[in-house]
Amino acid sequence: MTTKDIFNFIQISDVISTSGQPTPFEFEVIADAGFQHVINLAMHDSDNALPEEGSYVAEAGMNYFHIPVPFDAPTIDHLQLFLKQMSILEGDKIWVHCALNHRISAFMQHYQRSVMHRTDDEIIPMVSSWEPSEVWQEFIKLDLKDD
What keywords would UniProt list here (predicted)? Predict the structure, then answer.
C-alpha cells in the first residue's frame, strides 16, 4: 500500500497531501512516506473518527494537530487557525485530513490561493465526488483580505 491508496487522496505539493480519514495502519504508511505532521479538521464525533487518533499518529512518529471544524458551520476563524498552523509547519511534510476530504478540499482552495499564490487554473481541484453545499460555497468565496 502507498499513500495514494488512502481514501480520497489528493497531492497538493511535494510536501502537502490530503485525504479522508486514514486508518491506524495508514498512519504508519503516511509516516513511512516521510510525513512529519498530521492535521485533522474532522469533528471527534464524525462517523469514521478514530477516538485515539492522536495516539496512532504519535506511535507512528508524527506530530498531531486537531482543528475541529463543524461540517455545517465552518468559519473564517477555523480557516485562519488552519492557515496559521500550516505557516508554522511550512517546509515540513504535512498530511491534512478530515472525514471524507471535503472540508480539506475547501480549506486547500484558500491555502493554494493565498499562500501558494496559485491561480484558479493552477489550483488542484477539490474531491470530485463532493458537491459543496451553500454553506461551503460561501466558505470557499471568503475573502481573507477583507478580514
Answer: Hydrolase
- Cβ contacts of 46-53, under 8 Å, gap ≥ 24: 46/21, 46/71, 46/98, 46/99, 47/99, 48/20, 48/21, 48/99, 49/21, 49/99, 50/21, 50/23, 50/24
Q: How many helices (H) and strands (E) does the chain have?
A: 5, 5
List, in order of start, the domains of the chain with CATH numbers: 3-146 (3.90.190.10)
Encode pLDDT of 103-116 as tens digits: 999 999 999 999 99
Grid cell listed for 80: 485562519
Alpha helices (H) in the chain, listed in sequence order: 24-32, 53-59, 76-88, 102-114, 134-141
Q: What is the DSSP string of 108-135?
A: HHHHHHHTS---TTTSPPPPTT----HH
pLDDT tens digits along 28-71: 999 999 999 999 999 999 989 999 999 999 999 999 999 999 99
Contacts of 127 (CB under 8 A, 6+ apart): 8, 10, 100, 101, 102, 105
